[in-house]
Amino acid sequence: MSNDANLPAETEAERSALSARSSPYDALNQKIVQLLQVDGRMSFREIAERLDVSEGTVRNRVTWMKEAGVMTIAAVVDPTVVQYKADAMLGIKVAPGATPAEVAERLGRHSEVVYVLWVSGRYDLLVELVLSAEEQLTPFLTEHCYARPDIASVEVMTGLKMYKNQFLLKRFFDAP
For the segment 112-159, what is each residue's pLDDT rounded down to a tens digit? Predict the structure, then answer.
């Protein structure tokens, strides 16, 4: 296959690969990603049938998106089913001289942290913890939040009752 996108593609597979390179977020790639979000093990053949394209087109686009870092296919474990006993949301104010990105990167390295968002308003960061026991919260806060030079303050909000927990990413387009 030619590396020059200006040259005509010789096969459907090459046309698909060139199309994927030139527009990684086109409607077809979005639909492929949406199907893989629901079932990461769905076969290229089934995806192709659902989207009315060839299996080769799906294979080429998925391969390109994975190699380009556009997507990763991974198993997502629902912590409400597997050892999930407590959760907390932390509202964090970053200390002068530190940046939200630095604190987010540091806290994001811990397995208990499932969500880190830089926000506007009262806090600089919202950080969600998922714990296998309520007793793990205090040690986490003591070691990683309290008396740390990059954190000015932490407000801890513990979960009382879960009403909704959606683990699939929100879709910005209709189902195929």
Answer: 898 999 999 999 999 999 888 889 999 999 999 999 999 999 999 998
Tokens 């199309």, located at residue: 19
SS3 64: helix
Q: Does domain 12-67 have CATH number 1.20.1740?
A: no
Average pLDDT over residues 80-97: 84
* 86-158 placed in CATH 3.40.50.720: no
- Lateral strand order in the sheet of 113-118: 113-118, 125-131, 86-94, 151-158
**Residue ranges matching CATH 1.10.10 in the chain:** 12-67
CA distance 62 to 70: 9
Q: Could you report how far apart the first and last alpha carbons of the chain are, in Å? A: 30
Residue pair 2/21 in contact by the 8 Å Cβ criterion: no
Q: List 8's β-bridge partners, or say none.
A: none
Residue 86 β-bridge partners: 131
Residue type, 106: R
Q: If pLDDT is split at 50, 70 and 90, which confidence band does 99 have?
A: very high
